[in-house]
Design brief:
By secondary structure, the chain is mainly alpha-helical. The protein is 76% helix and 0% strand. It is built from eleven helices and no strands. Helix 5 runs antiparallel to helix 10 and helix 6 runs antiparallel to helix 7. It is globular and about 45 Å long.
């Protein structure tokens, strides 16, 4: 029963945020999942990447049918981000659980600040857009960073790539969410593939020992199923939401999760220890 409730609860959230805001939903799955099901942070990250990949894949197909995906920008950001996510998977799997949670909390805080200060920026233009060499190089740098962050946090890179597309004016307003879904799909595919290969390596260990299974595939598929139904219903609404509404909602979500993660780390005396070490 718990499995079903978790799948429905998180699946609906993932479907809503991926279709309306262009982010994969990993910022919800990773911090909430270990609180609902007995699971390590590593397993939550790997399962999140697998679920978000399936959701954004279907979203991308749907947006592509409506000719809303900017393929040039999506591939420019998604390919290097995906390569970095694949390379970073083994590193993330070797890092301590608490270290990952601290890194995740830091990334969320940075994203909240960046998102808050971009809330009043002018809307994206609808005229033809150009990608200069300088703009492309800058975007490439952040795409690599997004891939690294995705593998270490499971957030799918959309919360980083979307602001980059917005601030550099690389896509039209109506293309922002669809193109972010494309880049996120490529990133999460590579990240989840990296974790999947680690699971296969663990299963085929010569000494016969089995490590923890990183990707919970039944849960990932369940989240995908619920999120897909939700996204199909919500996707047409994304064009009706104003930019300011999307930004305000995203800021509120990030703030809530930061409070939750901070409280849990404080309860574990992790933050207290970090502060003492700094002082």
């Amino acid at each position: 029963m718990t499995f079903v409730l978790v799948s429905v609860f998180l699946g609906i959230i993932v479907g809503v945020v991926s279709s309306l805001f262009g982010i994969g939903g990993g910022i919800f799955i990773v911090p909430i999942l270990p609180s609902l099901i007995v699971m390590t942070h590593h397993q939550a990250i790997a399962t999140s990447l697998a679920a978000v990949f399936l959701v954004t894949l279907l979203n991308t197909v749907g947006f592509a049918r409506d000719n809303l995906v900017n393929w040039r920008t999506g591939l420019l950001l998604g390919v290097p981000s995906g390569i970095m996510a694949f390379m970073s998977g083994p590193w993330a799997a070797a890092v301590g659980d608490v270290t990952l949670r601290l890194f995740f909390l830091f990334i969320l805080f940075v994203l909240l600040i960046v998102t808050f200060f971009r809330r009043n920026l002018p809307s994206l233009a609808e005229e033809a857009l150009t990608i200069t060499k300088a703009k492309g190089s800058f975007a490439l740098l952040f795409a690599i960073i997004a891939g690294f962050v995705s593998a270490f946090t499971g957030i799918g890179a959309g919360v980083i790539l979307s602001p980059i597309m917005f601030n550099l004016k690389m896509v039209r307003a109506k293309e922002l969410v669809p193109t972010t879904n494309l880049s996120t799909m490529l990133t999460t595919f590579s990240g989840s593939l990296s974790y999947f290969l680690l699971d296969l390596k663990s299963e085929s260990a010569l000494d016969g020992s089995l490590g923890e299974k990183l990707i919970d595939m039944p849960l990932a598929l369940s989240l995908f199923f619920v999120a897909t139904i939700t996204a199909l219903w919500m996707r047409p609404l994304q064009k009706r939401l104003s930019q300011s509404t999307k930004v305000v909602v995203l800021c509120g979500v990030l703030f809530f999760i930061i409070l939750k993660e901070g409280y849990e780390l404080y309860a574990m005396h992790v933050i207290e220890k970090v502060i003492k070490d700094w002082l």
